[in-house]
Every structure is written in C-alpha cells, then in structure tokens.
Amino acid sequence: MRTEQELKELVRQKYSEIALQDKATNDASCCGANSCCSTEVYNIMSDDYTNLEGYNADADLGLGCGLPTEYARIKPGDVVIDLGSGAGNDCFVARSQAGEAGKVIGIDFTEAMIAKARANADKLGYNNVEFRQGDIEHMPVGGGVADVVVSNCVLNLVPNKRNVVNEIFRVLKANGHFSISDIVLVGELPPNLQNAAEMYAGCVSGAIQKDEYLQIIQEAGFEHITIQKEKQIHIPGDILNQYLTAGEIEAFRNSDTGIYSITVYGRKPNCCTPGSGCC
Fold first, then answer.
1. Which end of the chain is more exposed for a tag (fewer CB within 10 A), N or C?
2. Which residue(s) pair with 129 in the sheet?
3. What's the pLDDT tens digit per position in 118-163?
4. 260 and 186 in contact (C-beta within 8 Å)?
5. What is the pLDDT of residue 49?
6. What is the DSSP letter of 245?
7. Other CB atoms closer than 10 Å to residue 211's CB: what's the count?
8. CA gap 214, 217 in Å, rounded
9. Would strands 79-83 and 146-152 be described as parallel, antiparallel, or unpaired?
10. What is the DSSP secondary structure assignment for residue 33, as one 8-state letter?
11. Domains, the chain, with CATH or none
12. Any bridge partners for residue 181, and if so which?
C-alpha cells in the first residue's frame, strides 16, 4: 500500500513526462500515461475545447475529462483559480471570460508543467495570468481571494481529497463558487485495476465513490451543490486485459460498476449570514 507522499511522487513523475509530450501522443495513450496504450481510440476527454474562446492548441495536452470553464459562470473582472493547471488550457479559456480586468491563477504540482504554461502565457502576451507551483492540498494563495475555482480531472489524482475541498472553501470569497470536472465511481473497481500505477496516474484508479465525493463537498460547507454534467467512461478491453483475467473482465462488464466523469458546482455561503457555519 503506497503512502500519500509516494502516490504524489508517482503523479509528479508521470505528469513531468507528459509535459514533454504533445497532444497527439497523449491522445493515443491512457489519459496521457503512454506506458498504458490502447489500440482503440481512447481519450477520456471526449469534450471538444477547440470552439471555446481563449482555446490555445499549444496549451491543450488532452488530459481533461470535462469542460469546467463552460459551466463556471465566470464574469468579467473575476479572480479565477485553476487547480492542476497543466500547460494552461483552462486558464486561457477562463481569461477570455474574466477579461482584462480579471485575473487567473493556475496552480500545478509539476515544475515542467509550470514552465510550459508560463512559456505559453508569454507567447500569448497575457499579463493577468500567472502560474504558481504548489500542492493543491496547501495552495500558495491567501484566503478569500477567488470568485471562482475550476479544475479539470485533477482531484481524483490527489490522495486526500478532503484537504483539497477544504482549501477550495478557504480560498473562495463569500458567495464564490467552483465548477470542477472529475472522475468518480459507482460500485467498486476490481482490486488489480484499482491498484495499477499507470491507471492511477492516468485518471481512473485514484477516483472515489460518487456519493463520497459529493459528501466531502457538503461537509466542507458548500451549498447549492449541483451536478452540471455527467457521462460514463468506457475502458477498452485491451487496457483491461493488462490488469484483469477474461473472467474478471466479463464480471466487470456485467456489473453495475461504473466510471463517470462529472462536473460539479458548489457555492461558498455568505459568511455574514447567521447560521452559515463558515464564520
């Protein structure tokens, strides 16, 4: 059983490698983990960014599982924080919505990703987008600074999701909100699949149960929690063959177990309201 720190180091190493790959390579791999290839077309992010204002192809590594910025209700002048900002894709889309008067802060665990994102921002000439290296369990951001928090397929990679959700609550202003796309489970994955290192770094086996995920958000103090979008994820057979026997694959396919991408919204209460519980 790996420790939380060992799991974080695994993710850091894998995503340092991914930062040096292009989108075509990542699209042909298992969520960017190219040691886990499939002969089928398999990219967990089937949503298309290319028509969104602010999209930049150099910043798109094909690692997401949704379009959180599409649902994030970002307004001109907003301060937006993107968790696990990668090469900057969601940050640049968020900037197009927040405008020149807004500010976007990307936070990423991986030095190579931060370097790539900063280079992309420099090429685009953006002076109101910045990237900070840090652990999203302990964000390098003051409390109550953000109007909106977004994240795309990142919390599932973090061992202690409760810490991250509590940090989201801390950095948001009163009445601020988040929109986060992530991977969750319904039912239990087979142990060999759950524990596979490549699958962990590639999006799936770090996921937790959908009900538990939503409960963590609720217990952190958020209100108006809403699933804005939900879709089921299909894992191709040639990937399952690497981890499961034929009998285990059949049982998995015939079970009620499911892997889902969800986009979740939640709002931080107005801390001046009596009984809000956040003062």
1. N
2. 104
3. 999 999 999 999 999 999 999 999 999 999 999 998 998 888 999 9
4. yes
5. 80
6. -
7. 11
8. 5
9. parallel
10. B
11. 4-267 (3.40.50.150)
12. 152, 263
